[in-house]
Recover the amino acids of this structure.
């Protein structure tokens, strides 16, 4: 489903575009993803709409078979990449799970702001972005996914999320489509 509409109180949620995570081995080239996420953030700010910048601060306590986040993280691990141009009015969320809602104030913040729809972008498509989108959908938000403002370490997991999962959760589309809707919402 293409992006057809944005509610008057739509928030942007940018997942894990932070120095430590993007410096990990195996990360795909993110030039276009970063540029698109930054363009979305700037547009949401211009319209006076909430921008939520999410960072992961470590792993959840449960066991997994795959490697975990290293215990000794570099000091700048959680710093947002400068291209996002984080502003004092942006809402920050620090998480320890894939999704941005559990054990954070995100749902309360969005409800306090009167938000009814979220646009989700960031990394990784099949983990942080997908989990946050699923949680937002379960909480009753209208969900839009900016598919060219997200990436995954593996092309096939990105493709699976974008083509199989996201259409069940909401609308998917390109940054340009979302920006066009924002520009038309006067």
């Amino acid at each position: 489903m293409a992006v057809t509409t944005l509610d008057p109180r739509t928030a942007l949620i940018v997942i894990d575009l932070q120095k430590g995570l993007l410096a990990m081995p195996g990360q795909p080239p993110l030039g276009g993803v970063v540029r698109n996420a930054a363009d979305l953030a700037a547009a949401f700010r211009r319209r006076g709409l909430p921008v939520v910048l999410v960072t992961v601060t470590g792993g959840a306590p449960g066991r997994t078979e795959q490697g975990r986040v290293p215990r000794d993280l570099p000091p700048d691990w959680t710093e947002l990449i400068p291209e996002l141009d984080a502003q004092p009015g942006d809402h920050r969320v620090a998480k320890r799970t894939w999704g941005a809602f559990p054990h954070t104030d995100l749902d309360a913040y969005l409800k306090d702001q009167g938000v009814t729809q979220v646009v989700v972008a960031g990394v990784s498509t099949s983990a942080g972005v997908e989990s946050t989108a699923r949680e937002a959908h379960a909480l009753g938000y209208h969900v839009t996914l900016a598919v060219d403002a997200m990436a995954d370490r593996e092309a096939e997991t990105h493709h699976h999320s974008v083509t199989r999962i996201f259409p069940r959760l909401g609308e998917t589309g390109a940054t340009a489509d979302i920006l066009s809707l924002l520009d038309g919402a006067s």
